[in-house]
């Protein structure tokens, strides 16, 4: 799948920044690939890119219209269809990370055909996967896991990969969601893989490699989330991590989208080790990544110090304070590069 750049990002009229995490993630890691954003009336998210109309984006040279917003169920709202058709009529390709296939929407399919444009459904892999085998394979792996959805697993994995490469490790990022695929150019949206093949897809994504090569794997969902735990467990078994990082947002009391209470960090550590030992008996936690965006600086630092001491693990906000403490832990546990 070759997605033409630069991008024009569509945010629709989503109610908050989390619902636009695809667009925001692309801007945070690939801002130089982006020209602007298109927002409908009432949109409460903002990537910081210039606001443009679809014709303005086309005139500025945008080649692909990225649907950078998500909703429960991964549907394309009916009132967004006109903007997608407008982009196709303006000469752009369209790429989506939603569950719904663009070609299954007649107005979009017809517009693509009459304009000779490409429709990219990033969430839907063209690969066929085997079932997971669980056999030990060479190489080292770190998986980001979470106390909930949308707590920073992708950012943590990307930041860890960057930090490890800067410290001399041979490291690569493995994308398991649509935004990660947009950012890395390779990966599998595991939540669109048939359940029996999730662990096999994770094995394909993080294959056998040199013993000194670290694969840093983007996490999905949470073992404690009643909606998404199945994907999380399959990813854990298939990725066979040597280490994992727990990602957490400290102001939540309920899991996103449901009434289930948030688990504790220790519960996530314990259950991840218990389940992960099926495919890697030596699995261990190497740190706690906290999204402290809602906390002031002194409050954030105090919170990180407290939970680090409670769990005997390094704790940091990957965006705010960097990843050096995690790389130090990996070096102490597994050896320097």
- Number of structural domains: 2
The beta-strand count equals: 11
Average pLDDT level: 95
The CATH architecture of the largest domain is: 3-Layer(aba) Sandwich
- What's the SSE pattern? EHEHEHEHEEHEHHEHEHEHEHH
Organism: Roseibium salinum
Protein name: DUF1611 domain-containing protein
Domain D-glutamate N-acetyltransferase-like N-terminal: 40-124
InterPro entries: DgcN-like (IPR011669), DgcN-like_C (IPR035086), DgcN-like_N (IPR035402), P-loop_NTPase (IPR027417)
What's this entry about, in short?
With 337 residues, the protein is α/β, with parallel strands linked by helices. The protein has 12 helices and 11 strands. Strand 4 (93-96), helix 4 and strand 5 form a beta-alpha-beta unit.
Please tag this protein with its features.
337 residues, alpha/beta, Rossmann fold, 2 domains, 6-stranded parallel beta sheet, 5-stranded parallel beta sheet, globular
Explain this structure to me?
By secondary structure, this protein is an alpha/beta fold. The protein has 2 domains: 115 residues, Rossmann fold, CATH 3.40.50.720; 195 residues, Rossmann fold. It is 35% helix and 16% strand. The strands form 2 sheets. A 6-stranded parallel sheet has the order 7-8-6-9-10-11, sandwiched between helices. A 5-stranded parallel sheet has the order 2-1-3-4-5, with helices on both faces. Helix 1 links the parallel strand 1 and strand 2. Helix 1 runs parallel beside helix 6 and helix 3 runs parallel beside helix 4. The relative contact order is 0.12. This is DUF1611 domain-containing protein. InterPro entries: DgcN-like, DgcN-like_C, DgcN-like_N, P-loop_NTPase. It holds the Pfam family DUF1611_N.
